[in-house]
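Reopening this one. Same input as before:
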Amino acid sequence: MQPSNDLGLLAQSLPIARELRNSGHRIIFCNPAKTPSKVISKAGFKNHHRGWPLYSTLTGDIRFINFFRMIGTMHLKRDLDILLWYFKHVKKNSTSEIWNFDHYMFLMGMCNEKYTRAIVKTMSKMIVKHKPDAVLNYWNPFMSIAARINKTPLISVIQADTHPHSKGFIWWKEPPIDLPKPVQAVNKILSENQLKSIQSMNELSPGDLTLVLGIPETDPIPNTENTNYIGTLLMNQENDKLPNWIYNLQRDKPVIWLYPGNVRYISGHDSPFDGLVILQACIEALRNLDVHVIVSTGHHKLPEDILPLPANFRHTPFVPGLAMAKYCDLMIHHGGYGSCQTGLFAGTPAVIIPTFSERESNARRIAATGAGDIVLPLACSSGKNKKVNFEELKSKIKLILEDESYKVNARKISEKIKKYGGAYEAKTLIEKFMNTLD
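Same output, byte for byte:
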């Protein structure tokens, strides 16, 4: 999967991995990020996480001791050149207004031919070493290219916004005509390996088998021919339990689950994706409301500068998402796809504070179903000094807690989603596909 130090893509991959393992298949993950690696190991899976060139550029963790540990057998001069280029051309242009998959992969450094070639080479080495019967890919065009180079069957799990027929993440506006994209650099590598050139990175999203997350009502694709919707993938199990102290909360007042995601992606610096703006806004909006607020941060620590939390707040590093979504009266989160789908599956309404455009897309879809509402951070496009209108946030929280229609709409969507089968349906489709290759 595309590596990111949060649980978003892991929430999409771990459920299918479990189903495949239960059917007797052997699974190897490939993710070098710290937090996902911890969860992958705890779930009992092997993780091939070494050898990613310059992974530190993707996480913003550029402490030089980590950098020199990372490069290993990679070429020092080449990697230093890429590192300097990345900061000069990409990091300074980091923005929360990411228009589409082309723009996203440009910001992930794919426009640098050396960088892209190095990671594709690393992915190819993994394929040659492990000889997989298939690659199951999530948001990782590097691996998509490597699988094609090695003629390995490719199964892609995608969101509708990365489908070739979609209008991208910001589908409600027309994109700028000069939007940067990495196609030129990628096509050089495709050409070198006798692969068909592309006009858009979305063309690398589908695989020999393509599974689309969600359902048509929440994840529409203009042309649904040969589209396999699989509904919701849940990282946690149906029978997961919450800590006893949560069950012991007095239910004479609403329980709100606050999940800001990774509070700060880059240590000591702000980034467009940080959940800190959500946490700060909710502290101000909820500190005087008669509610219980449970804050979880996906194994990430709370910044010391927001402590102590208000008296009606309780923090825990991690809670099982589905169990927590079912137990609470309202979710407040960053609009990550996994959080959105968990809430919809549980039939629990949400107030969403999206920190960048892919999350805003998810939030707008949910708001359109009447299963929640959206509060946009101010100055969202700049990615710096984002703020949330506390009064707007407080007003929408009160409205959703008091207006029963939000819960009714969320439950209607939940009933529809559950008909699509989720991870079990994905496993069935994968096995059926693999049988056609025998």
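So the earlier flakiness isn't reproducible anymore. For the record, The first strand starts at residue 28 and ends at 29.
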